[in-house]
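Comment thread on ticket #2218

A.B. wrote:
> Attaching the input chain for the structure job we discussed in standup.
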Amino acid sequence: MKVAISVNGSQVGADVEDRTLLVHFIRDVAGLTATNTGCDTSSCGACTVLLDGRSVKSCTVLAAQADGHEVTTVEGLAPGPDQMHPVQRAFRAEHALQCGFCTPGMVMAAVSLLAENPSPTEEEIRSALEGNLCRCTGYHNIVRAVLAAASERGGS
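C.D. wrote:
> Ran it. Output below, let me know if you need it in another format.
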């Protein structure tokens, strides 16, 4: 099956098997490896990306379902070379990462949350990130980072 997906603003097309998951398309076809394959069951959130601006777990979406749509990965967030998105800056400043495996998914989920709710409470952040697991238990710093990003963007 032929699919064409806009990934971080660039058109990526390929012949893929019908069962190809979006996470594998992103990693294997587009060559963007920051989106992690964690559990393949939608339990961990390491594969979270934006599909038409909304966060999805890319292990639950077929590449064919994303055909003709826009996908943004953590690599596509920065406004330019040597720059970071406000959420990425906040994660760095607030030490919201340890091993880094969950970080791309957490960042993408946070970006989606802040697009929908620019001024979330701590409780709303915790609820929004509920489907993303950090095995290093860095949740407090992650929540602080999202609050900091909201402040930087003019939210809370």
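A.B. wrote:
> Thanks. Noting for the ticket: The chain is about 35% helix and 15% strand.
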